[in-house]
Design goal:
Elements: H1 2-18, H2 23-34, E1 37-39, E2 42-46, E3 51-57, E4 63-65, E5 69-70, E6 73-78, E7 91-93, E8 100-101, E9 114-117, E10 123-124, E11 137-140, E12 147-148, E13 155-158, E14 163-167, E15 179-180, E16 193-195, E17 202-203, E18 216-218, E19 225-226, E20 239-241, E21 248-249, E22 262-264, E23 271-272, E24 285-287, E25 294-295, E26 308-310, E27 317-318, E28 330-334, H3 338-345, E29 349-353, H4 374-384, H5 392-398, H6 408-418
Helix pairs in contact: 1-2, 4-6
């Protein structure tokens, strides 16, 4: 506490030397820090006349029962990181008085094996069990109206949104879950594999970050969004296939996956974010699909084993240091392309390659079987109803009326063609 106040005072002195600082507001900030009260091993703040929030625990007990009252105040909240790094803690009981559990509350409680969330809790922050390597059981009281642990899944799910907000090494994601929340499995060092059901459409920021032991994961075609740093530093992950439902690879999504040797980027992706694959030290080669137009800052920086990369002429924007410290890299580029200019400007070895001959694609052949059938019209209808997803080339041949958009009129035109009401597509 004294250290916090000292740092805050130092900050105020520095800022006031350079600008006119509202010292009254600063004093109020110090006051806020000083409101922490000590009761045994607990530090708490008073939220109201009869409520308190536990903000720190300084003890070393292996079994803890959080008090429902403290110095006469009702404990309604457990604050940010309050029990973080309680390394010997194996079991903790949360009282029914608690309604709110803040961010990272039990992070790095390495010995914690099980937790039960009472029915009183209506708010839970992110990363609450981050780094709890031995956690194997998560149960939400069945009377809780906000969260649940359906199907004995060993996870916390936000009931209304079907978002899994926190899991552990024994989590089985139910097929009713539609979203994996931010930091849901972050620092889960004991997680080796997990199956994501095809009900999931989004994977949140840092969802599987620092899962060092994760060796394999399958991302289903239902997923359309993979968040910032979603698989950051998954050091044991060797390969991953991104489904063609994803259009953007966000910043640092697979950064520091040092064992990653191969990655498949589908032709649905149009943008690769900053440092998306930085520090993927085992990655030797990669092909960027013709759908990509932008590659962000440092996207492949420090990929020490990367020797070749093919960049299509669809890429019109590349950030700085995309290939910094890729000392053995040769870029394969097309004549007069942006990528060639980038290679020359950044003094990167490159080889000019010829453009591939485009295959003779038949207009209306959406399923790619070289004949036009009612199934092609059906695929368009299903895509418009969001029951399936078409890749870029499929959408191109689906545009039978040539208006630049895939609409129900395109499916109708195929049907009219098959009924011989029109001669050609």
């Amino acid at each position: 506490m004294r250290k916090t106040i000292s740092l805050l005072l130092t900050l105020i002195i520095i800022i006031s030397a350079f600008s006119s600082l509202n010292l009254t507001a600063a004093a109020e900030e110090i006051d806020a820090v000083q409101t922490g009260k000590i009761s045994g091993d607990y530090e708490y703040t008073v939220l109201s006349d009869d409520a308190a929030e536990i903000i720190d625990y300084s003890g070393s007990d292996t079994v803890i029962a959080v008090p429902s009252t403290i110095d006469g105040y009702k404990v309604t909240s457990i604050g940010h990181s309050a029990f973080a790094y309680c390394e010997s803690l194996t079991s903790i009981t949360i009282p029914d008085s608690v309604t709110s559990i803040g961010d990272w509350v039990f992070s790095s409680c390495y010995s914690l094996t099980s937790i039960t969330i009472p029915d009183s809790v209506t708010s839970i922050g992110c990363g609450v069990f981050s780094g709890c390597d031995e956690l194997n059981s998560i149960v939400v009281d069945q009377n809780n109206t906000v969260y649940d642990s359906r199907n004995n899944c060993n996870a916390i799910i936000e009931t209304d949104t079907n978002t899994l907000i926190s899991g552990c090494k024994n989590t089985v994601i139910p097929d009713s879950v539609t979203s994996i929340g931010d930091s849901a499995f972050s620092w889960c060092h004991s997680l080796t594999s997990i199956t994501i059901p095809d009900s999931v459409t989004s994977i949140g920021e840092g969802a599987f970050s620092w899962c060092y032991s994760l060796t394999s994961i399958t991302i289903p075609d239902s997923v359309t969004s993979i968040g910032h740093s979603a698989f950051y530093d998954c050091a044991s992950l060797t390969s991953i296939t991104i489904p063609d439902s994803v259009t953007s690879i966000e910043d640092s999504a697979f950064s520091s996956c040092e064992s990653l040797t191969s990655i498949t980027i589908p032709d649905s992706v149009t943008s690769i974010g900053a440092r998306a694959f930085a520090y993927c030290e085992s990655l030797t080669s990669i092909t960027i699909p013709g759908s990509v137009t932008n590659i962000g800052y440092g996207a492949f920086s420090d990929c020490e084993s990367l020797t070749s990369i093919t960049i299509p002429d669809s890429v019109t924007s590349m950030g700085t240091e995309v290939f910094s410290w890729c000392d053995n890299l040769t870029m394969y580029v097309y004549e007069d392309s942006y990528a060639k200019k980038y290679a020359i400007y950044n003094d990167i070895d490159y080889i000019v390659i010829e453009k591939p001959i485009e295959p003779d694609v038949k207009l209306g052949d959406v399923d790619g079987d070289n004949i036009i059938t009612i199934l092609d019209a059906t695929m368009i209808q299903r895509a418009l109803a969001k029951l399936t997803t078409l890749n870029q080339s499929q959408e191109s041949v689906a545009d039978t009326d040539g208006d630049g958009n895939m609409t129900i009129l395109d499916a109708t035109r195929i049907q009219r063609f098959l009924a011989k009401l029109v001669d050609t597509l």
